[in-house]
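**Fold tokens**
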Amino acid sequence: MSEKRAVLMVCLGNICRSPIAEAVLQHLINEAGISSKWTVDSAAVAAYHIGKKPDRRALETLAKHNVPYNNTARQVKKSDFEEFDYIFGMDNENISDLESIAPKNCKAKIGLLGAYDPQKELIIRDPYYGNAQKIDLKLEKYYAVFYDVGWFIGRIVQAGEYIKLKFLKEDLGRYLWRRKEDL
């Protein structure tokens, strides 16, 4: 693969779901030694937390898995739709917001990250509200989902293939099954 690929993870405030998704994918890319081939970032559709660090529970989830993260929240910009190849939202509201601000005929492909969840949970719900135990469980679950999706994307890049969203959706289960056999 000769050109660098770029992925943007998006959620409402860029303090829970999208930073975890960004950190996990970047971590896997770094471990695979292919960071020169990828740009990974995250952003919010709303301006609630611009310039702030992720929620402490999100950072604790990442720390528990030795996944570093240093970015702060930012909002999606129009230029993101030309700079990124793929923009993944966490829920239908994110997708609706992204589609409403995306320039016509933009470069980025917009899709739900949950479409690649081996457990078939399409919507990655916002864990920010709720009791601490439920939030911790959701963040842990999302870490696992993001790990599987990130691993799969990294595997395709190592093979030198271009990502095709339809291909990913149809073949994710088969590749994840192979991953279990590799362990």
Q: What stands out?
A: The radius of gyration is 15 Å. The domain at 5-182 is CATH 3.40.50.2300 (Rossmann fold). Residues 85 and 103 are 14 Å apart (CA to CA). Helices lie at 17-32, 56-64, 80-83, 92-101, 132-158, 165-182.
